[in-house]
Automatic annotation (TrEMBL):
UniProt main location, coarse: mitochondrion
Membrane topology: Multi-pass membrane protein
Family stated for the protein in its record: Belongs to the mitochondrial carrier (TC 2.A.29) family.
Keyword Mitochondrion: yes
Keyword Phosphoprotein set for record: no
Organism: Haplochromis burtoni (Burton's mouthbrooder)
A biological process from GO: malate-aspartate shuttle
Name by which UniProt lists this protein: Mitochondrial glutamate carrier 1
Length: 332
């Protein structure tokens, strides 16, 4: 990739389309991952990914599995586009005289890509997590043994929370991502949307450091010759393998990020003041195994997502669109 001339608009289109297709396919598993990661010991609502999905459909309907999908679909285009284009950019400038990159330089390019993407990833994850976890909190708060009388709600009630005070109040209708964003901006300013930025960097930078070099080397194995491109199915499998490996490797950071960004807390669920406090409390109260919560779900989400991303990327859908539309004027 470092030897190819970079067409930024084409890479943005590839990343955007791939992100939308991938998220649409795997979002229910991502929802299960968020809910499993937020469960505390002794307060489990769901036993496994399948149990979570079945209970979600029963209590919230089929579209309940897509709570938070709108904000993800809206922001995944710039997020994936920035990630892929940034990696290409850094690889291009780190390459010398057309020679291949060393593993260290590939990791350095991935690090740069991960640092760039958090500009979009952090607020996207912040809003998505609130919507994804609402169903778990509603189920938990329907259990009289878990709640005080003032917190009991009807089966179909939707809860909202004042993000400043942390008090739970009942609301007649569901809270949207737009409402959450407005309230955070009004009460906490722009930093409210970037809560958990440090934890997001801790997750996304190592992920990119692992993913991009691993994918590049796996994909290279499928090339019939050094100058030729690998088949699309090999790009897909390489993306799946590299994505799932990187996802599991950074899952502890993802658990910490999810806990920090969850503004709504269930009964007896502790709050965290920062990354160190979160890691310490999880270790003390739930043990090391808590850091692997949702790891299988995350691997199942990331594997096809990045497989689809790489197929779209290497097939060159963006280049085709630019070459066959008035947008070709944006090309190099």
């Amino acid at each position: 990739m470092s030897q190819q001339q970079i067409s930024l608009p084409a890479k943005l289109i590839n990343g955007g389309i791939a992100g939308i297709v991938g998220v649409t396919c795997v979002f229910p598993i991502d929802l299960a991952k968020t809910r499993l990661q937020n469960q505390r010991r002794g307060q489990q609502v769901y036993k496994s990914m399948m149990d979570c999905l079945v209970k979600t459909v029963r209590s919230e309907g089929y579209f309940g599995m897509y709570r938070g999908a709108a904000v993800n679909l809206t922001l995944v285009t710039p997020e994936k586009a920035i990630k892929l284009a940034a990696n290409d950019f850094f690889r291009h400038h780190l390459a010398k005289d057309g020679k291949g990159l060393t593993v260290f330089k590939e990791m350095l390019a991935g690090c740069g890509a991960g640092m760039c993407q958090v500009i979009v990833t952090t607020p996207m994850e912040m809003l998505k997590i609130q919507l994804q976890d609402a169903g778990r909190l509603a189920v938990q708060q329907q259990k009289p043994v878990m709640m005080t009388p003032t917190k009991l709600v009807a089966t179909n009630a939707v809860l909202s929370r004042s993000y400043n005070s942390g008090m739970v109040i009942s609301a007649p209708r569901a809270v949207s991502a737009t409402q959450i964003a407005k309230e955070l901006l009004q009460t906490q300013g722009i930093q409210g949307l970037y809560k958990g930025l440090g934890a997001t960097l801790m997750r996304d930078v190592p992920f990119s450091i692992v993913y991009f070099p691993l994918f590049a080397n796996l994909n290279r194995l499928g090339k019939p010759s050094p100058e030729a491109s690998s088949p699309f199915y090999w790009a897909f499998l390489s993306g799946c393998a590299a994505g799932s490996t990187a996802a599991v490797a950074v899952n502890p950071c993802d658990v910490v990020k999810t806990r920090l960004q969850s503004l709504n807390k269930g009964a007896s669920e502790e709050t965290y003041s920062g990354v160190v406090d979160c890691v310490s409390k999880i270790m003390q109260k739930e043990g090391p195994s808590a850091f692997l919560k949702g790891a299988s779900c995350r691997a199942l989400v990331i594997a096809p997502l990045f497989g689809i991303v790489q197929v779209m990327y290497f097939v060159g859908v963006g280049e085709y669109i630019l070459d066959n539309s008035p947008l070709r004027l944006l090309g190099p």
